[in-house]
Amino acid sequence: MVERLSDAERKAALLELGNWRHEAGEDRIVREFVFADFRVAFGFMTQVALQAEKAGHHPDWSNSYNRVRIGLTTHDAGGLSEKDVALARAIDAVATRMGAR
Amino acid sequence: MVERLSDAERKAALLELGNWRHEAGEDRIVREFVFADFRVAFGFMTQVALQAEKAGHHPDWSNSYNRVRIGLTTHDAGGLSEKDVALARAIDAVATRMGAR
């Protein structure tokens, strides 16, 4: 069972991640990515899906053509956990490789 | 340039599709699919992505674990067009193959 981040841990994580916005109500982090077109956007999603499946931790996300919006939280923990921070880091690395803006 | 469906055409299309709900405000059709798990849900999305890319017509969609929600409209036509009906038919066929409920 993974634990929810403390206030101090959450602040440190958000500072490190930089581009993710915290939604306090649901204690989730959200980021939107824009790619060249649908093909690149879905390629990005495919890489994230493989990472998520491997980690056993999945995003809530939406896509419209070249835009992908991702929300991360840990339902079992009732909010943000280290799993979300780790997945966010992995997502950011993929996004950089795929030329997200 | 594809044309928006007439009222009569839209009614006939909705009757044929059966499981799609019409959202009048944006003149779009929406359906939610539930699969066994994330792996199957994302496999479904991958097949739909390939169909959409081939058709040059893309869904607005979201995914949360085993659930996929899809909205279809044709922005260039200002509402539903034959492109949406064709993509909805293709999506339904994939969903059936993938055991959607």
From TrEMBL, chains A, B:
Entry-linked NCBIfam families: PRK00823.1-2, PRK00823.1-3
GO MF, any single term: 4-alpha-hydroxytetrahydrobiopterin dehydratase activity
Keyword NADP on entry: no
Protein name as it appears in the record: Putative pterin-4-alpha-carbinolamine dehydratase
Pfam family, one: Pterin_4a
EC numbers for this chain: 4.2.1.96
Keywords, ordered alphabetically: Lyase
Entries under HAMAP family matching the protein: Pterin_4_alpha
Entry keyword annotation includes Secreted: no
Organism: Arsenicitalea aurantiaca
Any one GO biological process: tetrahydrobiopterin biosynthetic process
Domain of life the protein comes from: Bacteria
InterPro entries: PCD_sf, Pterin_deHydtase
Catalysed reaction equations from the record: (4aS,6R)-4a-hydroxy-L-erythro-5,6,7,8-tetrahydrobiopterin = (6R)-L-erythro-6,7-dihydrobiopterin + H2O
Family named by the database record: Belongs to the pterin-4-alpha-carbinolamine dehydratase family.
Top EC class for this record: lyase
